[in-house]
Structure formats: structure tokens, C-alpha cells
Amino acid sequence: MLSLTAQDVKTGVPLADKAAVIQALADWLQQDGHVAAGYGAGLLAREAQAATYLGQGIAIPHGTQESRHLIKKTGIKVMHLPDGVPWDDGEKAYLVLGIAARSDEHLDLLKQLARTLSRDGLLERVKAIREPQQVLQLLQDDSGSSTETELMLSVEQLAVKADAGSLEQLLEQAATLMSLIPSEATALQQSDAMHIGQGWWLQQTPTGEQPRMALLTAASTDIVHRRQPVNGVLALAVKGMAHKTLLNRIADWLAAGRGAELAGLGSAEELLNALQRGPGSANRHQRLAVVRNSHGLHARPGAMLVQAAKSFETDIQVCNLDGDQHWVSAKSLMQVIGLGVKHGHRLLFKAEGPDADSALNALTEAVSGGLGEKLVSPEPKADAVEVREPQGIALNTRVQGVAASPGVAIGPIFVDAPVPFDYPQQAGDAEAEQQKLEGAIKQAGEELNATLRQTRDTQARDMMRMHGELLADASLMQGVTGRIKQGLSAAAAWWSEIDAAAARQAASDDALLAERAADIRDIGRRVMAMLCHRRLPSPPTHPYLWLAQDIGPSQLVNLDTSRVLGLVTVGGGASSHSMILARALGIPALVAVDEAVMTLPSGTEAMLNGDDGTLWIAPEAAVLEQARARQQEEQERAEQDWTHRHDAAITRDGHRVAVAANLGDTARAQEVADAGAAGVGLLRTEFMFMARRSAPDLTEQLALYRQAFDALEGKPLLVRTLDVGGDKPLPYWPMPKEDNPFLGVRGIRLCMQKSEVLETQLRALLMAAGDKPLRIMFPMVADWSEWRWAKARFDTIQAEVQATNVQLGIMVEVPAVALNAAVFAEEVDFFSIGTNDLTQYTLAMDRGNGGLARLSDGLHPSVLRLIKMTVNAAHAKGKWVGICGELGSDPQALPLLLGLGVDELSVSLKRVPFIKAQVRDWRLSRCRQLAEQALRAVDAPAVRRLVAAAQREPGTAQ
Fold first, then answer.
1. Model-level pTM?
2. What is the rounded distance in angstroms from the CA atom of residue 37 to the CA atom of residue 71?
């Protein structure tokens, strides 16, 4: 049953317009993760089709069938309007329930609502509401004398397919069936008819005599009363609550959405039997299955179950009767895995829809059959690390994933399976539960602070601070406290709120924002471990490859890189916080690998290749030996590259290329010279604007930029001005939600809305530079007007500051700039190509979408042509072109970029010696030949095959 809490109710809402109320409810449902954008239009469309005013001051707006696909999970939000809002036919609504119904979870609540409508004096109670608790009491109050004789309905009191042309004529027949005297019949006709839904009406009048009733259905389907259809009517001469049972039975049919079916029955006997039977037997659409898999319902069998469920249209839910017994969607792998199903646990399935029985039979058979696994007893774990054949994956198998951090790692895997938390759902002492919660949060905060004190990496520190903000979030705590007051235990309340917050984040239309759900669940698990007195999995003491469903950023902060050889995750994306940290730490990593890897036993030997995105499971001894030999060669080569890191990056035939470093903050500027970089080819300035409550002022920015200039000792600093927006929001710079933030207000477009932010940054940069070499570039420029606007701000400030060694350029991220590069080249001093965004905009593929990662390749000929166009336009005007995206670090892309004429490559600090050495291995003449061939290739794989063949040629490449 859907649980309605005080958090779902707002009182004193000062809205006076029906459309405004409906949109406010839709926004609220969307904010809490129940629906996607656009559901409000579905609610308004329903109003145009049929009235949603029930009577007694209550309305229930709900979406159309066409808008049902926008519902993510069932939810109801309630608003009380003290002054009322005109709703239908002159009626005023004071209590409005916005409904997003995906399955039958809300039906019990609607049944109660239908019963509520029959109470005397309900309208006055509705008007008098002031607190959310009064709404809950109103909807949950089921008062009535249990000793009162139940009013029984007989065939003689039924009229099926009654011949009538109006509701009034039906009521005349009802009065006859009820044997009412004239005064009673008149009172019944004059009472206020109430539409209780789906063409059913309730007409009642008080009586001091024996209570009586009649039930009629109409033969005609054309009868309308107050703009609503008339399919049937329940007429009552009421005394007390003797009619309650019959009203509840009708409410059951209406709540199941089967009111029209009830009214369409062909005989009085069928109608009476249907009312006694109800819309469905309690067990008709439920099935029980026992899990016999030795390791329970982990990722692989869970995926099989979800796939089976998705083959049916009906909504299917499942709960673990031996777990916390909460219902989840059987079509969601994460929710199914989250049930913590172990060997011998009982799963209860329920379904509602046209193919419900078929779906339940198929699922119970699938569970009984082992969901693709042999039903055998689990083998005892061996203490020693040895190569064992994993379940479902053959020996010597390569599993494809998405490369997230370069490098090769070989070793035993550590399977970090999700920890199930066992906890009571309910608790009696709210105060004691609140104290437990506060103690756990305090302990988690202390651990975070201790971690923060030990962490030097700037990105990791920022992330830790963000987790601290999450722990201290007032709205999060308010939600948890509200759930505890409703009777939930501290653990149940905390995880419910965390799960809801993470679900809202994961439902974001933007993949980068969706990946931040891992941050929320990460901090949530920290507190849960303390509340449930569980230890999170302890990794081995020997070196290992870490394999998990997902890896939270805080888990990487103080990672022992001497032990963790590589990272592999089933979920997440290459641009997640965790993978950003992995690249910063130099740890090879894969994401989006097959779910089946979660079935591997810990200790299985594997080889991770972060360059080509593969995980080689239990490779043969000969393969391992070759790989280790190659790894040793690469290590020796890396040492050699480091030794020669200060040698110039000059091709074999004498062409010089600048290799610079990408930095995420100014703290590492002191490492640039030591790495052999020619300077900083990209300084991302977002670091100083994020993880704080207000924008940095001129003094703060000056200090940070001067720190970088001093560390570089005369080497050039290329700075990208603030690049935030829909996909990288700032907490102090609120922006409306965008359907597609990558195509929305970000980069220079956002700065145009707040020019003072850009002007302060430009002034700080120019003042800090003095006579040192400074390069400034504007991000996300697409139109000439944007460049001229930004350049005008720069010219004004530069006229005042007069820095002596400054160049001004733009990033090439949008195909429009590359296509129009000849125009921009007239004024810019340089172009810097951001290949990540240029690729996603050219190929129309979200770079954060793991499902498209294999197709989203910067070596696609169309992207290479845009790079070539940019270089040609720049060189024609004596300007230079750099690459600052991930493509610059790709050894297969390197000869093509050289052949296309790129002047500078900017890569991560760790890759600088390697890329410089790679340049020295090639001849520019061969690179130009390859580039010309690549421009004529059909796709990115063809380009990569072309380069791979050239790399094997003696004398021209490595």
C-alpha cells in the first residue's frame, strides 16, 4: 500500500487558479522523482476530457493514458487551499490530490477516499483543515460502529440495464425498489448527487426508519449529469453506517479502475456476485517463489529476472518476504539487487494488467529454474588466491567495457558485492530513533573530517567537502525526521530518504548529473553501516583489481595505490567523480562492464586494459606470461620516457610540437615543469567556483592565479574562463532546469547573463599575469556575437590593466565554430579544440552515456574533418591550434593530429612524458599520409585499424 505521510501534504497553499494548482502538483511530483517533465500537461489534458471534482470540496487531478509513460514511480501529493479554488461546474475544491499512478500501490488510498466521501459534514471538515496531520486523519479515519447491523443487498434491490434517460429517472426507479414513501422519495431526488468516479453516482438521504438501498445500472451509455457520464447509481436511505460494506465494495471496483466493467454486467445475479467477490481474488495476481541459487539473487540472475519481467507489459512488483518486505519494481535491476535476496529467501510477486497471470507464471518458473544458473550448493572459499572458472563466464574470456582510465593491470579480483542492511521497518520510540540517527551522522561526519585531513588531492578534498554538505543538509534531515515521526526506524527512515534523493538524481535527463547519485548513495551507506552495526567489505591485504557494482568517490580518496591495481564497475560512467579521481591517481579503470562479472569469485585472476576497455577473465598461463612481459616492457619504457621528459617533442624528420599539461586546479602548477610540459595548455577554473557558498572575489582569484604564474616560472598559462551551466550547476547560481543542459545555457552563454562574474575573472587574470605569458580562451562559443561580446569585456579591462603578454582565443567545441573557423580566425589569436564536446555534438551522442561510449569516438572521420578545417583556417592567418581534450592523450590519435597540423597537445600531467616520447617515434611525412587516408575512411574503427597497421610498420612508428 502507498504510504501517505505529512511530507506529502502542504496546507495553507495560497493559489487561486485551477491550472496553477495542477502545475504546482506536477512540479512537486517531478521534484520528488515520481514523474518526468511534461506530466503537468497530462494532468491538464485529463481536465479537458473529464471532471476530476469528486464532491465535498475534494478533487483528484490525474494524468491521461497518453502521459502514463512519464510516471517513474507511483506517488500522491496533497495540497489544501484555505480559500478554495473554482474547479468544475461552479464547485470549489479545498483539498486537491495530485495522482501519478503507475501500478496499484495507490488503490488502497483511493478506496479510503471513496469511503470518506459518504460521511456527513465532510465539506466543513475539509474547509477547517490547518495542519498536514488533519489531512492524514481525514483520509485514514475509518470510524463507524462495528456492532451495527450490516445492510445486505439482494437481487430485488438491483436493476440492471434500467431504461432511463437521466439520473433523475434512475432515482425514481430506485425509490420504487426501496419502497420509499413520497416524502422520502422527494428528499432522495432533492439531495445532492455525488459522482464517485467512472460514471458511478451516490445519492443519499437520512432516514429515521430502517435503512434501505438500491443499486441501478443504466442501459443507455449516453446519460450525462453535470458533464459526467451516468453508468450506475447507488441510492441510500441512511441511518448510521449500515451501508458501509456495500460502499466499500463499490469503492474497491472503482479503485481498481473497473467501474465501467461493473456497470456493464448483464444481470442482477452477475452484479451481486461481482460485488461480493470484489474486482479480483486477493491471491489471483500474486505468486510465491523460493530462490535456490547458491549465492542468492545477485547481479547475473537478477538481470535474468528483470529481462523476463520486461518481456511483459503488465506492471510487476516483487518483495523479499525474508528481507524488509518492501515492494520494488521487478523491472529494475538495482531495486531487485537491493532486496538482498539470499539462498532460501521467499519472493512474492504481484502483477496487475492484461497479461498478469502469464507474467507471474513465467517469473516463478524462471526463479524455480535457477535464472540461468545451476542450482548447486556453494563451494567453500579457498584462502589462497587461485585461478577458478567463474560462473557464467568461461575461462580465457575477454569482457568488453568502456575505457575510463588508461593503463594495464594484472592480478586477482576482489568482488565488492553490495552489503545488505538488516533493520526493522517500524519503531515505537521516535525520540530514541532520532538519537540513533544523529549519533550515526555525527560518527560519519567525524570519519569524513579525518579523511579530509589526510587527503592532499584537491579534487578529492572538494568531493569530501561535498559529502560533508550532504550529511549536514537540512532538507535531508527534515525528511528523515518526518519519516521517524511517522513510525519508521532510524535506518528505514534514513535509507528511504537517501533512496528517494538518489533516485531523483539518477532520473536526471543529463547523464553527468545522474552519475552523481553515486555520491548520495555512498554517504548513505556510510551512515547505514553505523545504524545497522555492519562493517563495509574489507579489501584484501594483497594487490588486487577492485570490481563492484559501483564505486563511490569517497572510497577512492585514501586509496592505497600500491594495493589497488585497477577498478572495474558495472554501473557508472567514464565521467563520474570516481573515474575522474581514478585518472588523477593513475589507476587503470573500466566502467559499464557486463553484469555477469559480479558472479566471479574473488581471487579469479584477470587482466584489465584501460586503453581498449577490456577485462580478460582468467587468461591462460601463456597469455598472462606474455602480458606480464609486455607490462614489464611498458614499465621500462615509462621509466625511459620519464628520464627523457625534458627532451623536446620533435618528430624523426624534425617537426616540433608543444606538449602542455591539463590542470584541474592551480595547486599542481608546480609539477608542470618537472613533468617536462611546455606550460599549461588548459587550466579549468571551475575548481575555485565550486564546493563553496558564493563566488570567489577578486582577491581570492588573484592569489590563486599568482600561485600558478609563480610556479610556472615563465612558461605560458592557458586559462579557460568559467565553464559551468546546466550540467555543472553552482549552488549559489540557481538556474531553471533544462531538458538538455548540454545544449542549453552554459559556458560563455551563462557568463553573458552575469557579466560581472566574467569581468572579475578577467581582471584577476590580467592583474596576476603582469608580464608573464597568459593565454585566455572562452568556452562554448558558437556564434560570432558571443565572441564579440566576450572580447569587448576583455578589451575594456585590458585597456586598464595593460598586461604585456596576452593572447585571446576560443574553444572549438561546437561544429558551427569549426565550420566558420575562417571568420573567427580573423580576430582570435588561437583555437583550442575540446575534442570531448566536439565529438558529442558532431555525432549527437552524450559523452556521459555509457551505452553510447563505443560509438562516441573522436577518431570518427567527421570529427577529424572539423579539426582539419579549423587548422587550415588558423594557419592561413598565422594563428595556432591546440588540442586539450582526451583525444590528445590517445596514442592512436597522435599521428593523425600531427598529420592534420595541430600545433600543441595538452594532456594530463602523468601522460606528458609518454606523449612526448610518442611524438619522437613518428615521422611527420607518414603522419600526413595517415591523416589523408583517415579523412577518407568510413568510420572510427576503420581509422583505428589504419593507425594500428601503421604502428606495426618498421621505421615509421614505434
1. 0.51
2. 10
